[in-house]
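Fold these two proteins, one after the other.
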Amino acid sequence: MQISMTLLEPVRAWAEAKYKAFRPNGFGRQYGDLSRINLGAPDEVWEIKRQIVETNGLAGAEQEPMFKDFCGYITEGGAVHPHTDSEHNGKQHVRFNVLVSKPQSGGVPVQDDIELFVEEGSVWKCVASQTKHWCTPVVGSKPRIVLSYGFLL
């Protein structure tokens, strides 16, 4: 699945303007809970989620309660450490991620030791409670910006 640049551009501009209000989440990493009203996520964030839900038959799926839906913003040298997330009440934690901004180098998502080469606008699924996942360190001045929508399935 590919998200149009028409939807990505307002999200990228919003993330660039708001990331300093996100919570620090490790070296070079910021995390913005999309439900926080003070972040004022643009309508395009929710249109992207609607498209993912519709395309993947997720209507009625329960939202993952710990991380919910978020925007990740990673600058040079930042990375996501290898980890597996918890299941909740016997349901799998599944995330649908959208690459909003691809850095000059690095920031590559990895699942079970397999690098996923995704382009801006790409959507990829991660069964986060069963798959060890992370991203490689970001290189260069362009940030890695990802929208991540969490579900329990």
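Now the second one:
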Amino acid sequence: MVRADFLLTGASQIVTCSEIGQDALGVVTKGTLAAAGGEVVWVGDQSQLASAVELDEDATVVDALGKAVVPGFVDAHTHLVFAGQRREEFAERAAGRSYSAGGILDTVSATRAASTDELLSLARARADAMLRHGTTTAEAKTGYALDLEGELRLLSVLTTLNDSHPLDLEITFLPAHALPEEFEGRPDDFIDEVVGWMPSAKGLARWCDVFCDIGAFDADQSAKVLDAGKRAGLGVRIHANELASSGGAGLAARMGAASADHLLYLSGAEASSLAMAGTVGVVCPVTALGLGRFPDVPLMKANGMTVALASDFNPGTAYSENIQFAIAIATRAMGIGPSEALFAATKGAADSLRRSDIGRLVPGAKADMVVLAAEDFRDLGYHAGVNLAEVVIKGGSIYCL
């Protein structure tokens, strides 16, 4: 028998994303979940509760009222901290203008001009919105300063937010997001600068990243950045093959990157190499929708890749904090079923962050979960365009109703 200070009962489904339940998602029908100290200690049938769990007198009890319960969403790719907007660029692109990485510099200008307090306030509001939509952990990148002082300031903002907000952040250092204006025509010189910045991020970020694509940095330049990040003790992620076959996917495989993100252009050989390297393919449906090209998820699966799903929240191509929107697009346009999409937005995304304590509802995992305004988790793709997060629970505490 285990002790618990939190109990969730009355669920039509508890999706555990484990072997606990009856199918690939580990669905427990008419399930009950108990937690203690912010961690799951037991999941099972209501009839087994009395013999399995000793509940504290002052325990928090949540009645799911016949609704489905899923793990808190894990958003594996976001750009959470920036200032300004790019609605004019969006309108022009919607009217037929092609996208390039150059629009990033508009956001860089606005972000450099903003105060630290303003950046923190903006990021906090976005984190609030993510939590309301059921995201309980999010990867969050720098990348909108492109100079050492500014990038470290963005790391500081993200650290402050992580320390003061229920949304957990996995912080990524992305100084090579685009070529700043002051280095125009001198990308190699900028890369040399970035290589020297990497040790400064140690202790502030867990991950490093680089934008390996046309209009940004080539595979050789990207390799220098990621090698420097690894030497500084940072894990490796990479923006790869979003706009063209850039060599980023192959680089991710060679470096054993935790994730290769976007992958709108991907060959079978690259997918196989990524699978062998244990690199998770992080797909970003909202961005893909805007660019008019979707990643080949069936190809990834056929070659044994783990797939994660992310919002890619950013001011240029995916200005949406709602990962449910990404799930809905994925199930409609990317050859991925409702079960696979949910797995990709929870356990798959957690895998891309090398985390086993999130994205699942099993003993030892964080008690992060979402009670949906639906009796079946498949409504996440089916009942699209609304927020289905009725109750958001983080670490056994209720944050959104």
